[in-house]
Amino acid sequence: MVPPVQVSPLIKFARYSALLLGITYGSIRFSYLKPYGEEDRRREAEEKKQQEEAARIAKELEAQEDTILK
Amino acid sequence: MSGCHGHGDAVTRRTGAGDQDYGNQGRSPKPGLPCVAPRSPATINYSRPRLATFWYYARVELTPPNPAEIPKAIEGIKGLMQSYKRGRLSELTVREALRNGLVATEILFWFYIGECIGKGGLIGYNV
């Protein structure tokens, strides 16, 4: 087997500092984006509820009217 | 079938053609426990030598820097800046530049892996 190569300390330092920076960046961005995600989900749920309400009302109206077309 | 033989039996047994490797070679895992015959799946048999080669290289190449190596790293950065000031950039061969580009790309990949760990997912932020 090829013997393992001795990596220079600069590269090792750069690698692990990049890893740490990435972890902090990911967690910071996640905590920044989390309220927006919750807002989106809340708004979607509200809109869905309103749409269901409108559909229910439309169905009731349709059931009430008596035409000979149906 | 080769089951669990107990504690004091001979360790070496002739392996026949249809023998299965039960991982513990028929011995009990700990002296006080009852003898069990675990069945080691093919994945363990497949991955064990590869894991060994991985550790063989990772223990030298992938370890984090010691506290003693950090001054050397800082010296390396200073050396890079000095060589940039002296205009060594024009003396760079394309091969060297490609090699440095590969190293820089690998460091960038470590950043992305860190971001994946920080955001808790592989693709996208699961908000």
Automatic annotation (TrEMBL), chain A:
Pfam family for this entry, one: ATP-synt_E
Transmembrane feature ranges: 13-33
Entry GO CC: mitochondrial inner membrane; proton-transporting ATP synthase complex
Keyword Amino-acid biosynthesis found: no
Primary site of residence: mitochondrion
Keyword Membrane: yes
Superkingdom of origin: Eukaryota
Subcellular location: Mitochondrion inner membrane
Keywords: Acetylation, ATP synthesis, CF(0), Hydrogen ion transport, Ion transport, Membrane, Mitochondrion, Mitochondrion inner membrane, Transmembrane, Transmembrane helix, Transport
GO molecular function annotation: proton transmembrane transporter activity
GO biological process: proton motive force-driven ATP synthesis
InterPro entries: ATP_synth_F0_esu_mt
Family matches, as PANTHER family: ATP SYNTHASE E CHAIN, MITOCHONDRIAL, ATP SYNTHASE SUBUNIT E, MITOCHONDRIAL
Quaternary structure and interacting proteins, as annotated: F-type ATPases have 2 components, CF(1) - the catalytic core - and CF(0) - the membrane proton channel. CF(1) and CF(0) have multiple subunits. Component of the ATP synthase complex composed at least of ATP5F1A/subunit alpha, ATP5F1B/subunit beta, ATP5MC1/subunit c (homooctomer), MT-ATP6/subunit a, MT-ATP8/subunit 8, ATP5ME/subunit e, ATP5MF/subunit f, ATP5MG/subunit g, ATP5MK/subunit k, ATP5MJ/subunit j, ATP5F1C/subunit gamma, ATP5F1D/subunit delta, ATP5F1E/subunit epsilon, ATP5PF/subunit F6, ATP5PB/subunit b, ATP5PD/subunit d, ATP5PO/subunit OSCP.
Function: Subunit e, of the mitochondrial membrane ATP synthase complex (F(1)F(0) ATP synthase or Complex V) that produces ATP from ADP in the presence of a proton gradient across the membrane which is generated by electron transport complexes of the respiratory chain. ATP synthase complex consist of a soluble F(1) head domain - the catalytic core - and a membrane F(1) domain - the membrane proton channel. These two domains are linked by a central stalk rotating inside the F(1) region and a stationary peripheral stalk.
Family in the record: Belongs to the ATPase e subunit family.
Protein name as catalogued: ATP synthase F(0) complex subunit e, mitochondrial
Species of origin: Eleutherodactylus coqui
From TrEMBL, chain B:
Location within or outside the cell: Mitochondrion membrane
Region named Disordered: 1-36
Signal peptide: none
GO biological process: proton motive force-driven ATP synthesis
InterPro entries registered for this protein in UniProt: ATP_synth_F0_gsu_mt (IPR006808)
GO cellular component: a single term: proton-transporting ATP synthase complex
Compositional bias ranges of the Basic and acidic residues kind: 1-12
Swiss-Prot/TrEMBL keywords: ATP synthesis, CF(0), Hydrogen ion transport, Ion transport, Membrane, Mitochondrion, Transport
Keyword Transit peptide: no
GO molecular function terms listed in the Swiss-Prot or TrEMBL record: proton transmembrane transporter activity
Top-rank lineage group of the source organism: Eukaryota
Pfam families: ATP-synt_G
Family classification: Belongs to the ATPase g subunit family.
Name of protein: ATP synthase subunit
